[in-house]
Write a structure and sequence with these properties.
By secondary structure, this protein is α+β, with helices and mostly antiparallel strands. It has two domains: 208 residues, Cytochrome Bc1 Complex, Chain A, domain 1; 180 residues, Cytochrome Bc1 Complex, Chain A, domain 1 (2-Layer Sandwich). Helices cover 47% and strands 17% of the residues. The strands form two sheets. Strands 1-2-6-3-5-4 form a six-stranded mixed β-sheet, sandwiched between helices. It is globular and about 60 Å long.
């Protein structure tokens, strides 16, 4: 059994090295100032492209919260003289896919198309219009504002959303990361078309763009594609960096809710994308609560006590410190016990660190599973865009496995003791037991 496991991990690591050796990342800058990251892959007749901007919810102001989200949402709903329906039909006509992503840091548009000339040219023409010539029609904006507001009001009845939103406000306070990503009902209501145009002109700028390209095209073709996608983007000065995340005011909020289960979340400021403690914290978290049934939290909360079906901990690295978060659901009458045990497991882990056996198993699982995280163009594209957006080394994928393998017990213990303070964490229980 052990020999089979060793051979499996060895073969995966060989495959991983083969991927890195045959898919080198190329990087350059367009004439307009956009950063380009390119991987040539001729295995499939597919071309994947993403264009990301520093235009996530964290660049909103409290007075116009939701402007970033609404601007991003309307990009593909009318652009370059084409209506929303014409954009959709033109993309479907060549079997392409247009999608998007939005979070605290990034706003991005993604295209997947066949690499053959007719299909590629038509899809790229539409994609270029969406990114560079959005029209923000008044009627479309009003319609989408109404839909967003309706979704917010519906979400605010759900315990999981209430817990997450409350936790964000407790964790980040006045920091931009504390803003609701979709905006607030009152701020959305106040937004006008000019607000979206101004936001686009100041944030969707060429020097703020990261173009990621992967697929069956040559370097020469990729250069031409990147130029076409960025040449007409607005030109403006660079954006200011986000402020450093302050330590939160510790506290616990217990919020009544008619749900049968309590939703429990705990959080503390965690990792930046370029954090020097990145690997010790990631490996340590796998042992604590990120490794599914192999984690301590799952062992103590579910397997030993049956207090929850699932419990996990996660780091969400961002430009500034993203949240370190623990989450679980349990019966209302067990919520206080489950919270107490969760805190104890965390404190014990931070105090004593992992065991040698836990570390060996964690490394084996992370290293062995890593090739499965880069086994498709789409997965590699996500890494490519992250490398570009956060200015990580081009060798990041190759370095990942090596860095994980180098992590030792003392590094994990030291990093968690310096970075995570259980006594300063914020906690939310939605569906808490009512006091009698």
């Amino acid at each position: 059994m052990y020999l089979a496991r060793y051979l499996f991990i060895f073969l995966l690591s060989v495959y991983s090295q083969w991927v890195f050796a045959t898919l080198p990342i190329q990087h350059w800058q367009t004439s307009s100032g956009a950063q380009v990251y390119f991987v040539e892959s001729r295995d499939l007749p597919i071309l994947d492209i993403s264009v990301d901007f520093k235009a996530g919810s964290s660049v909103d102001s409290p007075e116009k919260s939701g402007c970033a989200s609404l601007t991003w949402h309307l990009l593909s709903l009318g652009a370059g003289g084409l209506s929303e329906d014409k954009i959709s039909k033109a993309i479907a006509d060549v079997g392409a896919q247009l999608s998007a992503r939005f979070d605290r840091d990034r706003a991005g548009m993604l295209l997947r198309t066949l690499s053959s000339k007719r299909e590629r040219d038509q899809a790229l023409d539409i994609f270029s219009k969406v990114i560079q010539y959005p029209e923000f029609h008044e009627s479309t904006m009003k319609r989408e504002k109404s839909r967003m507001i309706a979704r917010i009001k519906e979400a605010e009845t759900k315990p999981g959303y209430i817990a997450s939103r409350t936790l964000d406000k407790m964790l980040y306070g006045a920091h931009p990361y504390g803003l609701r990503r979709s905006g607030e009902v009152d701020t959305l209501n106040r937004l006008q078309r000019n607000d979206l145009i101004d936001f686009y002109q100041s944030h969707y700028v060429a020097t703020n763009a990261v173009v990621s390209i992967m697929g069956k095209v040559s370097r020469t073709e990729a250069v031409a594609i990147a130029e076409a996608l960025s040449k007409s983007l607005p030109q403006a000065e660079g954006l200011n960096n986000l402020p450093i995340v302050a330590k939160p005011v510790a506290g616990t909020k217990r919020i009544p809710h008619p749900a049968t289960q309590s939703h429990i979340l705990l959080a503390y400021p965690g990792l930046r994308r370029d954090d020097p403690d990145y690997y010790p914290l990631i490996v340590g978290n796998y042992i604590l609560g990120g490794g599914g049934f192999a984690s301590r939290l799952m062992e103590e909360i579910r397997q030993k006590r049956g207090l929850a079906y699932s419990v996990s901990s996660s780091f969400y690295p961002l430009e500034q410190a993203g949240p370190f978060q623990i989450g679980l659901q349990t019966k209302k009458e067990q919520s206080e016990e489950a919270l107490m045990i969760t805190k104890k497991v965390l404190v014990d882990f931070i105090t004593g660190g992992p065991t040698k056996k836990e570390l060996t198993a964690a490394k084996g699982n992370i290293v062995g599973g890593f090739p499965l995280r880069i086994d498709s163009n789409k997965k590699i594209m996500e890494y490519l865009s992250v490398i570009g957006f956060y200015n990580l080394p081009l060798s990041y994928l190759d370095d990942y496995v090596k860095a994980v393998d180098k992590v030792n017990l003392e590094q994990i213990k030291d990093a968690f003791q310096r970075r995570i303070r259980p006594d300063r964490m914020v906690t939310v229980i939605v569906g808490a037991m009512e006091e009698k």
